[in-house]
Amino acid sequence: MTLREAQPGGAPSTALHTDRYELTMLDAALRDGTAHRRCVFELFGRRLPGGRRFGVVAGTGRLMSLLRDFRFGDDELRFLRDERVVDAETLRFLEGYRFSGTVTGYREGELYFPGSPVLTVEGTFAEAVILETLALSVLNHDSAVATAAARMSIAAGDRPLAEMGSRRAGEQSAVAAARAAYIAGFSATSNLEAGRTWGIPTMGTAAHAWTLLHETEEDAFRAQIATLGTGTTLLIDTYDIAAGVETAVRVGGTSLGGVRIDSGDLPTVAAAVRAQLDSLGATSTRITVTSDLDEHAIAALAASPVDAYGVGTQLVTGSGTPTAGMVYKLVARQDSAGAWVGVAKSSEDKGSRGGRKAAFRTLESGTATSELIAVSDGFEPVDSPAAHPGARALHVRLAERGDIDPAAEGHAGVEAARAHHRLVRGELPVHALGLSRSEPAIPTVYVEAAG
Amino acid sequence: MTLREAQPGGAPSTALHTDRYELTMLDAALRDGTAHRRCVFELFGRRLPGGRRFGVVAGTGRLMSLLRDFRFGDDELRFLRDERVVDAETLRFLEGYRFSGTVTGYREGELYFPGSPVLTVEGTFAEAVILETLALSVLNHDSAVATAAARMSIAAGDRPLAEMGSRRAGEQSAVAAARAAYIAGFSATSNLEAGRTWGIPTMGTAAHAWTLLHETEEDAFRAQIATLGTGTTLLIDTYDIAAGVETAVRVGGTSLGGVRIDSGDLPTVAAAVRAQLDSLGATSTRITVTSDLDEHAIAALAASPVDAYGVGTQLVTGSGTPTAGMVYKLVARQDSAGAWVGVAKSSEDKGSRGGRKAAFRTLESGTATSELIAVSDGFEPVDSPAAHPGARALHVRLAERGDIDPAAEGHAGVEAARAHHRLVRGELPVHALGLSRSEPAIPTVYVEAAG
């Protein structure tokens, strides 16, 4: 069996989505024997950047699939050898590398707060340290987008939101962003790859180029309706909006599905378009707006006659917070005698809290009241749910001794995350729904593990 | 030959990195016959977001490679059929799709300004309209990062900059970000995949986890030096910085390569560490700083005894401007009689300028004075360089009748872009080098094409 065949399905290896220092540490650790010490690494955020009142965990399902492809094949090994990143012994270790540890973490779609142990990786130092970059890349990006999406979803209320930001994000991040937005409450995406890969509903009708391609706006509208039917949405702002609306209803009739507005002062324009549509008898024609929206602009349109929102740039860039800023830290390890010790760095501005953790959401009458984190300085025991009656245990097992639970993966994982997010967002206290910069909606409370 | 075999080298198709409305428009255009009208689409930015004084084009080489893989194979066609995105005739068109048009554009690494026609795609409406999302995703992301990187590079002067932000960007965007940063003046990256894929030098030694894995900081330093030699860089801020420096020099000797500081008030800490290193005789030991740097923090360290910078979050997120915000617009097309006409939408806040364009950078004594854009309302002629003596023509041919020029691709393309960027950055007027929000450094001047 060649190394290439060792990669199931021929999926590209994700193993070099790694910062060089992880392999340098591995190299040195194999030499001094510390590589085989069992360790607990924890992925968490020190704070909620951007004055967010809560965060939304996203990316877990993607990460678990990418972890399956974290294998060092011929190409990866050749690169590491040619670049002299590691020595021959380390190359042999990487050749046989399979993650054999345990991963626990928050369900995808779950809320998180400062200090929440969103992901916990337990294994040898060697196998766990090299996952830092991949785990952070996925969770930091996807959670930042999901958090922004949840805020937009709150602002939009019952009106549907479509994700249309692919053009303002790297081509692969765009697909992940569509997925994160759907988990956090969006109902569709313009991105076809997100439709194929993750089963997300796709939408879209026409751009300004469609109108400009034709001699007249009327020609363009007629041609679109000929293909898509009168239920379609016509883009009416290429030339003059009032003329566009008049033409749209003349061509599409009073049962025209919708019109889209992509420019101008939206509250003013939406009101004028609604009045014009109604005066023309097109009272059921829906208005979609899509111009530079963020959660604040959406909130400002709450009283406007808008039926649906399309959100692009601000969604995929996290609405001012493009990364969740989470970190991946060693929090516990075995010492030379095999005993567990909690460890933490003590930098003033970037300190961390050592020890293995269990996490619970305490609730009163169905409303979240705190993020309860039970810390164990040694390794076992950590608190079981029984220790905190009425609280919800936040960790689920994602991989056990290297065996990845497929529940978080694929289309089913996305739908489960979306459903879970809807559920837990309903537990937020009312003040969590505000959009201005503020403190986290619930306090993070640390307790010593009761065992 | 199956469709899958039609994909050379088995590279994954990029064809669904597309917004649904592009295929909806194609579907309607094939039906009404406008699909075969020849068109010119232009990719440009209306402004430089974030108060940037110049932009840096990046992503061109990546885009041309991705364009090679823009093919609709069995899987893509099945998805489009199952989702009823397009009809059977359109599926047949997509099955045979090969871009057969012409692409001209700015060299990768070139500067750009508001209105610069960074990329021009000429072909039938059908073949050109469906490239919108892919082209924008790549160029908007990569150019935003390159522009931030250039500002950081200006702030750093002769001191080297390393890109270390992979963990704060989606896992694939991280690789593209490392590439964009290298083009715009960074000297290395921590990202191993960027090393393999693009030939960028990689760097990195150890994280705090390395120190925490060991019983003492001294154990960790000794083990690192045993593997990497005394030329290595030791991370000294896990516990107490002064103690860390003392231990580092005791273990590594006065010829220790370097120390890294990742926390604290960097000007204060760097000065103290330099004084301590000098007092211990380690006068050639270099200081690298890596904590939350952006171009402003780097500039503020200009007088500090810092030898190298590592930049993460702010680099990969475009330092407050995570997307370049460029758009892809139809600017000229044939009419039903085959005559060329310039077209433009007229929205007040998002108007565009119709007509095919040629672009020139005018220079006086080697310093850029304007972005000269010659507009032709018809199709031919556009200005040749001879029409503007002393100015540099900014467009190069990237693909001719579907045949992609490989010059921009691969490792060689990256090195060429880096060299070109260095050259053209040297032409910027002095006031372009300021970091505060301002107007574009040179004006964009439109002239009618002289023919």
CATH class of the largest domain in chain A: Alpha Beta
User: Based on DSSP secondary structure assignment, what is the total number of beta strands of chain A?
Assistant: 19
- Main interface pair? A-B, 105 and 105 residues
CATH architecture of the largest domain in chain A: Alpha-Beta Barrel
CATH superfamily caption of the largest domain in chain A: nicotinate phosphoribosyltransferase
CATH topology of the largest domain in chain A, by name, is nicotinate phosphoribosyltransferase
Main sheet record of chain A: 7 strands, antiparallel
Number of domains of chain A: 2
| Main sheet: strand order of chain A | 13-12-1-5-3-17-18
* Terminal residue distance of chain A: 47 Å
Can you give a write-up of this model?
Chains A, B: One of its GO terms (molecular function) is glycosyltransferase activity. Chains A, B: This is Nicotinate phosphoribosyltransferase. Two copies of one chain form a homodimer. With 451 residues, chain A is an alpha/beta fold. Chain A folds into two domains: 269 residues, Alpha-Beta Barrel (nicotinate phosphoribosyltransferase); 161 residues, Aldolase class I (TIM Barrel, Alpha-Beta Barrel). Helices cover 35% and strands 19% of the residues of chain A. Chain A contains 15 helices and 19 strands. In chain A, a hairpin with a 2-residue loop joins strand 17 and strand 18. In chain A, helix 10 packs across helix 11 and helix 11 runs parallel beside helix 12. In chain A, 57% of the residues are buried. The N terminus of chain A is likely disordered. Chains A and B meet through helix 1, helix 3, helix 6, helix 7 and helix 8 of A and helix 1, helix 3, helix 6, helix 7 and helix 8 of B.
